TrEMBL record:
<feature type="binding site">
    <location>
        <begin position="219"/>
        <end position="222"/>
    </location>
    <ligand>
        <name>substrate</name>
    </ligand>
</feature>
<feature type="active site" description="Nucleophile">
    <location>
        <position position="191"/>
    </location>
</feature>
<protein>
    <submittedName>
        <fullName>L-asparaginase/N4-(Beta-N-acetylglucosaminyl)-L-asparaginase</fullName>
    </submittedName>
</protein>
<dbReference type="Pfam" id="PF01112">
    <property type="entry name" value="Asparaginase_2"/>
</dbReference>
<feature type="binding site">
    <location>
        <begin position="242"/>
        <end position="245"/>
    </location>
    <ligand>
        <name>substrate</name>
    </ligand>
</feature>
<dbReference type="GO" id="GO:0016811">
    <property type="term" value="F:hydrolase activity, acting on carbon-nitrogen (but not peptide) bonds, in linear amides"/>
</dbReference>
<feature type="site" description="Cleavage; by autolysis">
    <location>
        <begin position="190"/>
        <end position="191"/>
    </location>
</feature>
<dbReference type="InterPro" id="IPR000246">
    <property type="entry name" value="Peptidase_T2"/>
</dbReference>
<dbReference type="InterPro" id="IPR029055">
    <property type="entry name" value="Ntn_hydrolases_N"/>
</dbReference>
<dbReference type="GO" id="GO:0005737">
    <property type="term" value="C:cytoplasm"/>
</dbReference>
Length: 332
C-alpha cells in the first residue's frame, strides 16, 4: 500500500514532541520533521533483515549509498537466501554467476555481471562506480578488478545448492520459469533490490542476485542492467525490479517506472503501468512473475507485480513491515 498524500502531509507537519519524530541527525533541540525520511524499501521477505542493516546507517544520519550497499550485503552473505550471493542457485553447469548494480542520487552507476567466486558483488559494483570511468564490468574482467581491489575468491556453491542442482539435472534438465512465490524452498527468482532515502533526502538504490536458477551458462539478467533492474533519478524517484529478468529487460522496466513518475504518476500507479506495459509487449507474460518497487523523491512508495505473492519490506522511523504488492493477476 502506498503512503497517501494525506499521510505524507501529516508526516511533513508532525512536530517532534516528546521525542517522537526527533531525528538523531538533527542538532536542533526542537525540530519539525520534514518529509518521511529516512526510509528504506526492499524486495521480498529477506528485505526485512536487509532493511534493518540499512537502517543502522540511515538512522545515524549516514549516506543512502552506504545504507543500500550494507543492506543488500546481508542477503548476499546469507546462505539461506538461495537467490543472492553466497548460497545462490547455480546455472545449468553448476556455476554460481552473480549480477549486481548500484546507483546514487546524482545518477552515478556501477555494475557487475557474470561475476564468479566473489561473495559481495554489490561492493564490487560500488567500486566500479567510484574507481572506474565505466559503468559495467563483466566476467573475468570483473573478477580481476575485484581481486585487485582486495576481494577474496570464495566458493559460492553450497552443499545444499549443489544437491538441488544435481536433482534438477536428473529430473528436469530444462530451464523453466517458476511462479512459486509461496514456497521459498522452491523459489528460483528472488533478487534483492533496495531503495533508500537518507536524512538529507539523497535517494540511492542497489540490486543483487544469483539470477534465475539453472539459467543457461553465460546468461545475464536484468539485475545488473541500469534502467532494467534498477534506476534512480534523485530529482524524481527510484525503481527496482525482481522476477523474470527477460520481461524486465524487454521493457526497460525500472527506467520506465521512473519516467512514469516524472510524468506525474504516483509510485504505485507507475509500477502498475510498467507491469501493464509487459502485458502489452511481451508474449507469455502470464507464465512469469515480476515485481517492481518504487519510491518518489518525497518518500512515497509503491509496488506492483504480475502474479499475487510478491511482497516488499518497508522501514521508516515509525514502520517496519512487509507489504503485499498489487498484482496484475489478482488472487481469486
Ligand atoms: C534475473 N531478476 O536474473 C533476476 C532474477 C531474480 O527476483 O532473482 N529476480 O532475471
Amino acid at each position: 500500500m502506498a503512503l497517501t498524500t494525506r499521510r505524507l502531509f501529516l508526516a511533513k507537519v508532525s512536530l517532534g514532541v516528546a521525542g517522537l519524530g526527533l531525528s538523531k541527525y538533527a542538532n536542533a533541540g526542537f525540530l519539525l520533521r520534514i518529509n518521511n525520511f529516512p526510509i528504506v524499501i526492499s524486495t521480498w521477505k529477506h528485505g526485512i533483515p536487509a532493511n534493518d542493516a540499512a537502517w543502522k546507517i540511515l538512522s545515524g544520519g549516514g549516506y543512502a549509498l552506504d545504507a543500500v550497499e550494507a543492506g543488500v550485503r546481508v542477503a548476499e552473505d546469507d546462505p539461506e537466501v538461495r537467490t543472492v550471493g553466497y548460497g545462490g542457485a547455480p546455472d545449468e553447469k553448476g556455476k554460481v554467476t552473480l549480477d549486481a548494480c548500484i546507483m546514487d542520487e546524482k545518477g552515478n552507476a556501477g555494475s557487475v555481471a557474470y561475476l564468479q567466486n566473489i561473495k559481495n558483488p554489490i561492493s564490487v559494483a560500488r567500486l566500479v562506480l567510484e574507481k572506474t570511468p565505466h559503468v559495467m564490468l563483466s566476467g573475468d574482467g570483473a573478477l580481476e578488478f575485484a581481486l585487485e581491489n582486495g576481494f577474496k575468491k570464495e566458493k559460492l556453491l553450497t552443499k545444499e545448492m549443489r544437491k538441488r542442482w544435481k536433482k534438477w539435472k536428473k529430473e528436469e534438465r530444462e530451464f523453466k520459469a517458476k511462479i512459486n512465490v509461496e514456497n521459498q524452498s522452491e523459489e528460483n527468482h528472488d533478487t534483492i533490490s533496495m531503495l533508500a532515502i537518507d536524512a538529507g533526502g539523497r535517494l540511492c538504490g542497489a540490486c543483487t542476485t544469483s539470477g534465475i536458477a539453472f539459467k543457461m551458462h553465460g546468461r545475464v539478467g536484468d539485475s545488473p542492467i541500469i534502467g532494467a533492474g534498477l534506476f534512480v533519478d534523485g530529482e524524481v524517484g527510484g525503481a527496482a525490479a525482481t522476477g523474470s529478468g527477460e520481461l524486465v529487460m524487454k521493457t526497460l522496466g525500472s527506467f520506465l517506472v521512473v519516467e512514469f513518475m516524472r510524468n506525474g504518476l504516483s509510485p504505485q500507479d507507475a509500477c502498475t503501468a510498467a507491469v501493464e506495459r509487459i502485458t502489452q509487449k511481451v508474449s507469455h507474460y502470464e507464465k512469469h512473475q515480476i515485481g517492481y518497487i518504487a519510491i518518489s523523491k518525497s518518500g512515497e512508495t509503491g509496488a506492483a507485480s504480475m502474479q499475487p505473492g510478491f511482497n516488499y519490506a518497508v522501514k521508516t522511523a515509525d514502520v517496519s513491515e512487509l507489504r503485499e504488492a498489487d498484482a496484475w493477476f489478482k488472487k481469486l
